[in-house]
Specification:
Helix content is about 60%, strand content about 0%. The protein is built from twelve helices and no strands. Helix 2 packs across helix 11, helix 8 packs antiparallel against helix 9 and helix 8 packs antiparallel against helix 12. It is globular, with a radius of gyration of 22 Å. The chain binds fe (ii) ion (FE2) (2 copies).
Amino acid sequence: MSRRTNLAATQDLPPATPQPNVFPLSWARGTEKMEEIWTAAQKEVWDPAHLSWDTFDPESYTWEEREAIAYWWTLLSVFDASAPPVFAEALIKTYEDHEEDAVRRCFFSVTRDEQNHEQMCGMAITKLLGHTDPLAYEPKTELGEKAQRNAKWLYFNGGRYWEGYKQAVPKYPLAVLFSSFLMGEIAAATIFHQMAEGAREPVFEEAFTNIGRDEGRHMAICMTLMERDYPKLDVSDRSLITKQIRAGYLFLSAVLYEPPEDFWDLPSDFIDVQRRCEAVAREAGFHIPELEAKKENWRSAILNLKGVLDRYDVPFPAIPEVGISGEEVLDIDLDEIIPVF
Ligand SMILES: [Fe+2]
Ligand SMILES: [Fe+2]
């Protein structure tokens, strides 16, 4: 509208703002649980820069150990560095949808938390490698070189979903978009608690404790949204959720378990290299759960989610990889991935 229209000279009240308008001018209350989660989020804010970095001396490790531990942080950052834009987009959607005030705030808190996780990954990698870019860094050992090749493939795979995600966001309700997210949050919360418990370095223990607590809140946000919206779920949304869950499993397995071959495009020695890195990192006191423990953790997160979806009659996908039967979901493509965690 140009300024010259000057409607105010001819009418007492302005015309109604066309809807949906990106920002509501209201602070509607509804789901009390969201208020509680937001209050907790405010209380539990942390800053990666304020952890006890002064106790951490990368030089007390060999180069192979440094590269192996940095590899694990790089693997995590493929997920956590994509989360800020993913949640920033979801935050905008909560405004476009005129969501309850507390829901908007909760999505804001997830965006902020994920940015912290991303920063933490960056700080750990930078200290360990003495370089800000794990893909451009010049490896010092044979394992470091292989680890970097792994990281390049992870990054390539992780970067492929963004266009599909952007198209999916306006099409589907939040509670459908984030259905598989719950599974990731449950598993992430557990894995980070385990890593905090086993960590030898205070700075890593603090980081994993904080990240695990954040993921627990994200889980609660997701769950609350489902409890609010799933009872009135559209039938057509149900099969989409089933697909989402399978897609989420395939995507998140790369960090919470091991990347499934049918989805991740990776070199044949990828898993071997990753296992070698994990072994070196463990040996150096950086606790990463063993494969069996990861599998158990992942499986119980999935069963947890299944318990939630059963309540709302949403068919669960078959996940034979961890021994869960259900509806067969074939041909997942990247457009169906909501890659968060
Ligand atoms: Fe995270
Ligand atoms: Fe998260």
